[in-house]
Amino acid sequence: MKGKEINKSISVLDYFFVLRPMLFFPGWSTLLAGYFITEKNHLFLSSFIWNSFDPLRILLLFISFGAAMGASFLLNQLKDIVSDKENDKLYFIAKGFITKRAAFIEVVFLIIISLATAYYVSISVLIVSAIFILLTGYLYNYSPFKMKDRPWMSLLANSFMGFLAFAMGWFGTHSYSREIFYDSLPYLFFNTALYFYTTMPDIEGDKKSNKHTLAVDYGIRPLILAAFGLYILSAIIGIVLNDIQALFFIILSSPFFILTIKKMDVDSAVRTTKFSILFYALAVCFKIPAYFMLMVVLFFFTKWYFKARFDVNYPNFGND
Q1: Comparing C-alpha atoms, which of 283, 297, 319 is closest to residue 26?
Q2: Would you say residue 69 lies in a domain?
């Protein structure tokens, strides 16, 4: 992939888009689900919640978690340069648009921002943010742990990442309670189902670079079946908890999950992942409409950038 000969002011944006900001939305959506969990039985906020709404706190949570996710994605790219080249993706570092040194400096900067803003919200949020960075940045990528290179440990790490995203939102408005574990389950199982799908498109490149993933070791069919089982489990728990917020995106995603298990192919899994993430985000948009505007703006800004910079149609709802 070659960058187009364009104005340098656009190439400066490489340092933002290397963070993979479109992938922030699953994390942000889960964070908001945790933040508004007291309103899980309704699609819209009650007047009482609206009257006590604190936009500054949500903004700080978004900044803190966005910086934490960005730092983790950067560290992951720094360790996956070989497989990224094989899969012809994430080419900012793999193909030299951003140097390794610059990426590490950006990681440090993002970690400082994440922890500083988290501390401003609460000590609990700071602890969650620190655990997230430790898990996704260090334990997931670096020796002696390297959880990403151990299929089942990678699954555990990605599932726990989803819980931490939920917990960050939860602790934005709540103190600790064991209810956090019950309330997080529909979101945890749904996100984990989507994680199975995300390992599938890179099978060939992962094989060439000797990378072990669940998709490489077990194949597509078992993963699609496992993902569907987790999806059904998330629906059952959502019904038991009367979590209308979760059931909204679970129900809307059902045709895509059913089609995927019927066709048993990667294209269907990719399509299911994209639309499920969209429906998930829309569910929390009922609580905070400004989130929808953020989604639209970042989607089209990203689309313009990748077209101008690399002549690539990204993001999209197709299978490329």
Answers
A1: 283
A2: yes
In this predicted structure, which of 6-10, 190-194, 227-231, 260-264 has the lowest mean pLDDT?
Answer: 6-10
In a domain, 317, yes or no: no
Tally of residues, the chain: 320
User: Distance (Å, rounded) from C-alpha 156 to C-alpha 152?
Assistant: 6
Rounded Cα distance, 52 and 57, in Å:
11
Cα distance between residue 163 and residue 189, in whole Å: 10
pLDDT at residue 236 tops 60: yes
Count of domains in the chain? 1
Residue pLDDT, tens place only, 16-43:
999 999 999 999 999 999 999 988 988 8
Residue 30's domain comprises 8-310
> Is residue 145 in a domain?
yes
In the 3-class helix/strand/coil scheme, how is the chain assigned residue by residue?
Answer: CCCCCCCHHHHCCHHHHCCCHHHHHHHHHHHHHHHCHHHCCCCCCCHHHHHCCCHHHHHHHHHHHHHHHHHHHHHHHHHCHHHHHHHCCCHHHHCCCCCHHHHHHHHHHHHHHHHHHHHHHCHHHHHHHHHHHHHHHHHCCCCCCCHHHCHHHHHHHHHHHHHHHHHHHHHHHCCCCCHHHHHHHHHHHHHHHHHHHHCCCCHHHHHHCCCCCHHHHHCHHHHHHHHHHHHHHHHHHHHHCCCHHHHHHHHHHHHHHHHHHHHCCHHHHHHHHHHHHHHHHHHHHCCCHHHHHHHHHHHHHHHHHHHHHHCCCCCCCCCC
pTM for the predicted model, two decimal places: 0.90
| Cβ-contact 16, 9 below 8 angstroms | no
CATH number of the domain enclosing 27: 1.10.600
Q: Is residue 228 included in any domain, yes or no? A: yes
